[in-house]
Predict the structure.
Amino acid sequence: MSYKLKIGELKEGYLTDEEIWRIFTIVLSSKSVKSSTYKYALIKSLIENLYQVNERCELTYDQLAYAFAKIYWNLIVKHNLENQNRGKKAKVVTIIKEMQWRHQIPSDFSFDKLNAHVQVKLITEVKKTMKENVFGAIYGDTREKFYAFEHKSEYFKINPSVYRFMLKYQRLLVNLTNYHMAAMMEQLNEVPSINYLLGKVESIAKRSSLRPFENILLNHFERSCFYCGKALPDGKRQIQVDHFIPWSFVQSDQLWNLVLSCNTCNSSKRDKLPKKYYLDNIINRNEELVDKQEENVMNLMTNYKDKKIILLYDYSIKNGFDTIWERG
């Protein structure tokens, strides 16, 4: 059976959008062999890491396991949704509940509030489960055409055609995945309604605080608003960290997409894409960060390329972010 595979090679290098949609439709539906929410969590993990792939469309198992662990921690611990599988309890539930009990972590703790040591231990255990129950199984469901993987080297490569497809239809895929994941959890957990669950599934990815990024940006740049250039006054509430390209599209926090903003600009921009001339400014800003060659900054700029944020900007417009913001 495919879930036992330790190596999976791509059967085809090129797929049309129509072929990819056909396979995605089966994976997302109840026709899929995989009878747990794992398939949705893997798709969400891929979407969260779309802009972290290297030039060969590769990701590490650790990148995927981080996103996977965060999804399930917040569903299981914060929202008490322990049934994630038809049949016996999903292994990821046991791992997370044991970790919570061992470290006596309160249920209101989100994944991002966990200390680094606990996060690393949890990600390591979740990665083992993904090797056993996720990579091979969903590889089979996608007809061996969406990605390649190898457990020994922890190598994961997205089919370039699928990668471009996911960029092109990212917003739609997020909504479809959230809906189907919520629908399955509603059946498994006997919760009041799918609307109740959709809110929990949709809010999984967001980090609780951008304060660490604020400190890095303040250490390297003048205390001024990226958009209007005005000086930012002292005080925690006077500085905002804004996702240059909206978080609702990127669904992750990347230093190269974060800027310091005043309250006025941040409030008026909200979930909009800034006018294109700001794009040159953030590219120049990111070049300055890379040129500093400081370890703590370079770790947060892994796989950053100018063309990546340009691609992100263009695809966000194609995904419906076509109301362009400019400071009045």
